[in-house]
Write a structure and sequence with these properties.
Layout (H helix, E strand, L loop, with lengths): L1 H17 L3 H16 L6 H22 L3 H17 L7 H23 L3 H22 L7 E8 L2 E7 L18 E5 L1
Antiparallel strand pairs: 1-2, 1-3
Helix pairs in contact: 3-4, 3-6, 4-5, 5-6
Length: 188
């Protein structure tokens, strides 16, 4: 019994001794918050253009929620067009490179989605568009309203994420089959 107690105390000491102190944890949390607060600098013109891109993305998401393949094509085309129009003028080189990488994914994903007639095939390409949009919003934070990063754990054997203006889940990957399947991951 004494050996068990001694082993327990030793393990407890090792576990707590190896972990960060409260002060170190507070410093780590502060660094995390600082990193999150360091948004990439952008211009008002760029933010306004990104707001329009977001509007087109939300229209595409809503068409997929409704399982409307033809309307999804129209909105994917609009999303691509708006992304192509964005001028990163006034941004630093790093910010421009980030935007260009997001734009290419959005454009390519939109092209692929437009080629599909089946809504489930369109939803596959929407995953890639959504991943780029999520990263873009986190990087640039172009709008002054809350955007909900949402996720469904039951998409093609894994999970898939999307952005929404609404807090209530309306799943673009399943539509009316599983409309409310998902959860809010974060508020951006």
């Amino acid at each position: 019994m004494k050996l068990l107690f001694t082993t327990f105390i030793t393990l407890l000491f090792i576990i707590t001794g190896c972990g960060p102190s409260e002060r170190e944890q507070a410093q780590q949390e502060q660094r995390q918050q600082q990193l999150q607060m360091q948004m990439v600098e952008s211009t008002q013109e760029f933010d306004d253009q990104m707001s329009i891109v977001l509007d087109r993305y939300f229209e595409l998401k809503d068409a997929l929620v409704e399982s409307d393949a033809e309307t999804a094509k129209v909105h994917a085309n609009s999303l691509k067009s708006e992304a192509e129009r964005v001028s990163p003028e006034g941004l630093n080189q790093e910010s421009i490179a980030l935007w260009v990488s997001y734009r290419e994914i959005i454009e390519n994903g939109s092209d692929e989605l437009i080629r599909e007639d089946d809504v489930d095939d369109q939803r596959y390409h929407f995953e890639f568009i959504s991943e780029a949009m999520i990263e873009m919003v986190k990087t640039f934070r172009p709008v002054g309203y809350t955007i909900y990063h949402q996720s469904c754990p039951m998409v093609r054997g894994g999970s898939a994420d999307w952005l929404s203006r609404e807090e209530q889940i309306a799943n673009p990957y399943h539509g009316d089959r599983m409309m409310r399947c998902g959860a809010i991951i974060e508020r951006i």
